[in-house]
Fold:
Amino acid sequence: MSNVQQSGSTVTYSLHKFRVLLVEDYDFMQSLVSGMLRAFGVGDVVICNGGEDAKAALSSMVTTSKLVDLVITDWMMPEGTGDDLTRWIRDHENETMRFLPVLTISSYANKEMIESSRDSGANEALVKPLSGEKLARRILAIIDGPRSFVKSPDFFGPDRRRKNKNWTHEERRKTDPTTIEVHDEQE
Amino acid sequence: MSKNDDPVKVEIFNRINRLKEKAGGVLGKTMGRFSPTSLEKADLVIEEMADLYPQEIERRLKALNDEWARLKTIDDAAEKSKSVELMSNLSIQIKDLAGTFGYTLMSDFGDSLCQYILETEMSREEHSVIVQAHIDVMEIAFKQNLKSDGGKAGQELKETVKKAIEKYH
Structure:
């Protein structure tokens, strides 16, 4: 029996099949965020204390084919930042791992953090302090609005342009000769 | 043109949205939501943990004080650098903790201390005075249980830190 409820045309999601990796060095915040995720109905929350811990856990998950569905990582941690972890994920040889959705949580709302997080390949960024609505909004953005992934000589990750301006190839690249190869995943 | 006029290769990957399917959504259909009950439950988690704030902030302040006392005794540069990093990390934890539960003043002090430590890396003796000023006002804000911006008392504490920075930075 499905746990998904429909109200009019809006689907109420059920996250009981979701497995989320939470990377956070501060134990109190671990409890807070994992508690919120469980309140959303997330079936399994795996917690790691830092970037290195997370890399080891993800590597182990890949070998057992039990990869998480989403990574939520703190941005500023003592042993490697959230950006380091995101880059590691995006550079990974395992295809499923490379496309893992990543949500970065930061204490700072400055331009540096937003750009750094975006350029590392994170899907979304959330600025503390947390609220149920803020966290839900970011997770919903990942579920409902996944962007195409782009691989260029210096970047791999979700398309950094949020607005689809429907430019043609000609219009998009006036100066650099660019070849664009599109890969549409098949069922 | 690019440097060598070679075409730049860009690949675009359009993936099937399995996450949406897993959540019970239908591809290409309307956006979904979380149930209002689950959002309330998530906010309830924050409310319940707010009760733990006083003991948690006390624990963090003690850790900050302990590390500060330890840092002052360290001569080795590498060890000092580690200690400075720990101090900045504790400051950011205080910022996050206090900010989550509406203690804006305490959060601002945590933020200010973290920024100060990262900017200066505690390279000069004078920097100690400013760190100590931060720690002192944080202790006062905690003991007086100053919520939000702390009102008049909060402004006075902020002024104390500001003057210390102006004088010794």
